[in-house]
Amino acid sequence: MIRTTAYPRAALIGNPSDGYYGKTIAFVFKNFSAQVELEESAQLRIIPCQRDRMEFNSAAELAEEIREFGYYGGVRLVKAAIKAFYDYAALKGHTLHSKNFTLRYSTDIPHRLGLAGSSAIVTAVMKSLMQFYSVDISKPLLANLILSVEKDELKIGAGLQDRVAQVYGQPVYMDFDKVIMDSQGYGDYIPFSKELLPPVYLAYRENLSEGSEVTHNDLAVRYSKGDAAVLHAVEQWKALTTAVWNKLQKGEKEIAELINHNFDIRNATIKVSAGNKQLIEVARGAGVSAKFTGSGGAIIGTYNNDEMYNRLVEEMKQIGAVVIKPDIA
Predict the structure, then answer these.
(1) Do 303 and 315 form a contact (C-beta atoms < 8 A)?
(2) Measuring CA to CA, which residue among 7, 14, 291, 29 is closest to residue 175?
(3) Pairing assessment for the beta strands 100-107 and 45-47 based on DSSP bridges
(4) Which region, left, alpha or beta, applies to residue 155 given φ > 0 means left and ψ of -120 to 50 means alpha?
(5) Rounded CA gap, 274 and 82, in Å?
(6) CA distances from 276 to 114, 205, 218 (A)
(7) pLDDT, tens digit, 9 for 90 and up, residues 154-201
(8) Which of 50, 96, 201, 278 has the fewest Cβ atoms within 10 angstroms?
(9) Where are the beta strands (DSSP E) in 95-193?
């Protein structure tokens, strides 16, 4: 039995510039996870998890599940990951043995809240396939392959940041400069110790669930057309990431203003829903910094002490949001 795990991602600064030759800092955290179990079997079988179920007690239950998880569960991610792995192995000249397997997956990562839950499933699947077939893929290339599952196979707008953080399994500074990307096929990635980070929180509200493609697809179209506002925003996000990285390397942890500015740029460039704005406003009202961890539905920020954190928890309860201290990997 092969068991693999991948964790959700939280973007500290710079997102969503990773899809546009930008810079970001992100980490994964162990409060939630996606897990895969794979074992040899006579036929290749994929066992659905609860999110893929086809039986319901009522139409109301089916409707509620669709509101929470969307129309697609995780099986399409698993199937696309297996296909992408198979195609990659053939392209690189790896001879895969003919044994079959049964693969089952599970996840408790809050769904469609900008925590990279989909790519966590794909990452766990890829790690299990690498073990089963004894194929070694370097971390930068593995991140590329994982991105291709959603971007190329499933046509879901996405960037490299999530996959890099999940593959490295620790905080990473990422530079996706076009010259670097064109020359080596991936960015410059510098993993670093979580001890460099200031105290951070995560807060999310499940009724703000929305697919990341809603944001990414619109942004990608505007970027491709040379939208001046988008191009300027990307440059600003890059500069913020550089500033935070320089501070962290010096042991400086006061980055609240930079985190706030990251969201303010986004708010001026991309349409943000009222519910997502409320998350930010309530957090800042409690005295903490706040920006999105990803596409929306969840936010991240820094706090100074337990008193401030506890005040945040109480304020967030009033709007039905959950606050956690991420167990950073």
Answers:
(1) no
(2) 14
(3) parallel
(4) left
(5) 38
(6) 12, 9, 18
(7) 988 788 999 999 999 999 999 999 999 999 999 999 999 999 999 999
(8) 50
(9) 100-107, 172-175, 188-191
Q: What is the pLDDT of residues 20-30, one digit of tens each?
A: 999 999 999 99
CB 161 within 8 A of CB 18: yes
Tell me 300's DSSP state. Answer: E
Helix axes 228-249 and 213-224, enclosed angle (nearest 10) = 110
Burial class (CB in 10 A: 0-12, 13-18, 19+), 117: buried
Residue 131: its H or E element: helix 117-133
Residues labelled catalytic: 162
CA 56/CA 280 separation, integer angstroms: 36
Neighbours of 329 (CB within 10 A): 15
Rounded distance between C-alpha atoms, residue 37 and residue 58, angstroms: 31
Quote the CA–CA distance of 146 and 215 in Å, as a whole number.
20
Nearest to 290 by CA among 77, 81, 11, 34: 11
Which amino acid does the sequence have at 135? V
Residues with Cβ within 8 Å of residue 184, at least 6 apart in sequence: 140
Element spanning 36, H or E: strand 34-41
Contacts 24+ apart (CB under 8 A), 129-136: 129/38, 129/81, 129/82, 129/85, 130/85, 131/2, 131/4, 131/38, 132/2, 132/38, 132/40, 132/99, 132/101, 133/85, 133/89, 133/94, 133/96, 133/97, 135/85, 135/89, 135/94, 135/96
User: Which of 199, 177, 178, 175 is closest to 189 using CA atoms?
Assistant: 175
Rounding to the nearest 10 degrees, give the CA dihedral for residues 116, 121, 124, 128. -160
Beta bridge partners of 292: 299
